[in-house]
Amino acid sequence: MTTELECLAGRLREFARVREWERFHTPKNLAMALAGEVGELVAEFQWLTAEESRDPDPETLARMRTELGDVTLYLVRLADVLGVDLLEAARAKLDDNERRYDAELYRGSARKAPPS
């Protein structure tokens, strides 16, 4: 992880430790909490038009920002508990997607690539 992500993971680790919450921060519980926060983020987009979603009003954007923060915190905490380097996992997934979705074959297409 990068230094900033490592610092954030460390702060989250300490946040849980001083509250004696480590026993609750199991991968299962963190994944479920992450899914809940993603749901709250999605709810902010639910009834917006495509255009409104690109340029939300300031109040909606503030709520989206809060939910994105929640999603990020749970994702970083989950990765830390599992010992996963989040940026390395993302890089590996992007490398895989670049192999699977050849730009010439998939340009302008929303079709899914066959399983690798």
Automatic annotation (TrEMBL):
Name of the molecule in the record: NTP pyrophosphatase (Non-canonical NTP hydrolase)
CDD domains: NTP-PPase_RS21-C6_like
UniProt source species: Nonomuraea thailandensis
GO biological process: nucleoside triphosphate catabolic process
Alphabetical keyword list: Hydrolase
Domain NTP pyrophosphohydrolase MazG-like: 26-100
GO molecular function terms noted in the UniProt entry: nucleoside triphosphate diphosphatase activity
Superkingdom of the source species: Bacteria
Entry-linked Gene3D superfamilies: MazG-like
